[in-house]
Design a protein that fits this description.
The protein is an all-alpha fold and 193 residues long. The chain contains six helices and no strands. The chain has one domain.
Length: 193
């Protein structure tokens, strides 16, 4: 009986991201019924849906790779951070407006994490280093933007760059810490080799 309860709990946590994503996709549709401030078209829904599908698919893959709660949490934090970073850049931009080409530097932040993950073959110890490198890349983009005065015509410059750089660097470091914690767990619960 306890085994069935445990499997039901595991199933709930594997389905939860998909259910939350479906609700997130419905929010703008509902909001459009009550306000003119939200005006999404088919492209907006398609891009948001594709991003949600990619994020949930990545998390689902990690959940299948390991039984480690720390590893899954690390992946969840990293995927959420990447998702929000992309979404902010598409919607309003971090460095000035969404049209400012300087925002493309954040693609380098994501590339650092992705390339790092591939190089270390998703092993928890290596993932901790890859996410620490991602945090460093995030800080470097912020430093470059501030020293070069990129986006300085924006209303909230430099505060928005400082706050969001700190926010995302903290998320990348949290993910790195969770991967490090996963690396210390018994080998049977780590990522698949």
């Amino acid at each position: 009986m306890a085994g069935k309860a445990f499997n039901g709990g595991r199933r709930f946590w594997r389905l939860a991201p998909w259910a939350i994503s479906a609700l997130l996709l419905l929010l703008p549709l509902v909001a459009m019924q009550f306000t003119d401030e939200v005006a999404w078209d088919e492209t907006d829904f398609a891009v948001f849906g594709a991003m949600l599908f990619g994020a949930c698919g990545t998390y689902e893959l990690a959940a299948r790779m390991t039984g480690s709660v720390a590893y899954r949490a690390a992946v969840g934090v990293a995927v959420a951070a990447a998702f929000v970073l992309i979404w902010i850049n598409l919607a309003v931009g971090i460095i000035g407006s969404e049209d400012n080409p300087a925002n493309l530097m954040y693609g380098g932040v994501l590339a650092a994490g992705i390339v790092g993950a591939l190089v270390v073959r998703f092993q928890p110890r290596g993932m901790a280093l890859a996410l620490a490198a991602t945090a460093l890349a995030q800080v470097l983009v912020g430093v470059i933007a501030l020293t070069a005065g990129l986006g300085s015509t924006g209303e909230n410059w430099p505060r928005v760059i400082l706050v969001l750089t700190g926010f995302f660097a903290a998320l990348w470091l949290l993910s790195a810490w969770l991967f490090r914690k996963a690396a210390r767990e018994p080998a049977s619960t780590g990522a698949a080799s």
